């Protein structure tokens, strides 16, 4: 079905105030889920990001790659082990994680964006000490009168500090940074970090206008399964504590909260299975998914 010229013009006019508002602003996008797998969605993602760049926004990409890591580990005869959703990362696993995230996934995303004119540059958190990590500890509580058991999950880290100078330099020169979530430890060693947490920390360090998380569901839902189009930062803790937010939604919400507290204006959790979901969220009145705002930016 052909779209009339009037409808096309209306779409562009609807986008105009958003183009004006976000011109020159930084937007951090966590790229993951089905959007990294489907050929059609990969193309749509690249088109969205490059369009953002050419209309004056400053996109920064942080990507995941868990399924790709597990696939390579299986081929190498290494069985993945998870504790409370975190991949146990010994020396052998860390070598696979870095090889896959930095050497394969990152470069494929860079190539995709460059094919569409993006001038992308691939980095990991170890480049320029971009993401300084510290070891993550998991505590298992065995009873009220007993001290918690500390579970060692190896080279799994959390973000201690972000040094964004390398990103700012690249963006000022017109490049599009693509970041693999591997951090650097106190002795220069690599740490595997959840990509959602890295995205939020980088957004906070850059004082980004927005941080956007692509996921494989419509957004944040209430207890009855209905989509919440907008929530406030103060509602995040109850969503997690009450069990409404589960699984992979928890690190996204924690990351969003950290980003907002660091000065990011809004966070968005959107369905990456929808073609051009990023453009729909940023440049249309209705948007898609769930927006998360601080109290001072509330609807």
Commentary on this structure:
The structure is a single chain. The chain has 299 residues and is of the alpha/beta class. The chain has a single domain (25-291), classed as Acetylglutamate kinase-like (Carbamate kinase, 3-Layer(aba) Sandwich). The chain contains 9 helices and 16 strands. Helix 3 packs across helix 4 (91-115).
* Radius of gyration over C-alpha positions, nearest whole angstrom: 19 Å
Task: Return the average pLDDT rounded to an integer.
Answer: 90
Report helical residue fraction.
25-40%
Report the structural category. alpha/beta
The secondary-structure element order is HEHEHEEHEEEEEHEEEHEEHHEHE
Low-confidence stretches: none
Itemize the secondary structure elements and their pairings.
Blueprint: H1 5-22, E1 26-31, H2 39-54, E2 58-63, H3 66-75, E3 82-83, E4 86-87, H4 91-115, E5 120-124, E6 131-135, E7 138-140, E8 149-151, E9 157-162, H5 165-172, E10 176-180, E11 182-184, E12 190-192, H6 195-206, E13 210-215, E14 230-232, H7 236-241, H8 249-261, E15 266-271, H9 277-283, E16 290-293
Parallel strand pairs: 1-2, 1-13, 2-10, 5-10, 13-15, 14-16
Antiparallel strand pairs: 3-4, 6-9, 7-8, 11-12, 15-16
Helix pairs in contact: 3-4, 6-8
Would you summarize the structure shown here?
Helix 3 (66-75) packs across helix 4 (91-115) and helix 6 (195-206) packs parallel to helix 8 (249-261). The protein has 299 residues and is α/β, with parallel strands linked by helices.
């Amino acid at each position: 079905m052909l779209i009339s010229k009037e409808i096309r013009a209306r779409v562009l006019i609807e986008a105009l105030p958003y183009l004006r508002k976000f011109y020159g602003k930084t937007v951090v996008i966590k790229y993951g889920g089905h959007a990294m797998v489907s050929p059609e969605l990969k193309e749509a993602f690249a088109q969205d990001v490059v369009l953002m760049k050419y209309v004056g926004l400053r996109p920064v990409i942080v990507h995941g790659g868990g399924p790709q890591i597990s696939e390579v580990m299986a081929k190498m005869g290494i069985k993945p082990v998870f504790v409370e959703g975190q991949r146990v990362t010994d020396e052998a696993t860390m070598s696979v994680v870095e090889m896959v995230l930095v050497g394969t996934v990152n470069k494929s995303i860079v190539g995709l964006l460059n094919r569409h004119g993006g001038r992308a540059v691939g980095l990991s958190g170890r480049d320029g000490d971009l993401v300084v990590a510290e070891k993550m500890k998991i505590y298992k509580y065995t009873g009220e009168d007993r001290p918690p058991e500390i579970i060692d999950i190896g080279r799994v880290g959390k973000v201690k500090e972000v040094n964004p100078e390398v990103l700012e330099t690249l963006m000022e020169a017109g490049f599009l940074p693509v970041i693999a979530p591997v951090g650097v430890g106190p002795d220069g060693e690599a740490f595997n970090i959840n990509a959602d947490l890295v995205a939020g920390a980088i957004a906070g360090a850059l004082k980004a206008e927005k941080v956007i998380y692509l996921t494989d569901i419509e957004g944040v839902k209430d207890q009855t399964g209905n989509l919440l189009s907008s929530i406030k930062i103060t509602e995040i803790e109850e969503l997690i504590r009450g069990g409404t937010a589960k699984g992979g939604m928890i690190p996204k919400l924690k990351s969003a909260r950290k980003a907002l507290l660091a000065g990011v204006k809004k966070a968005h959790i959107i369905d990456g299975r929808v073609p051009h979901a990023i453009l729909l969220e940023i440049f249309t009145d209705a948007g898609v998914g769930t927006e998360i705002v601080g109290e001072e930016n509330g609807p």
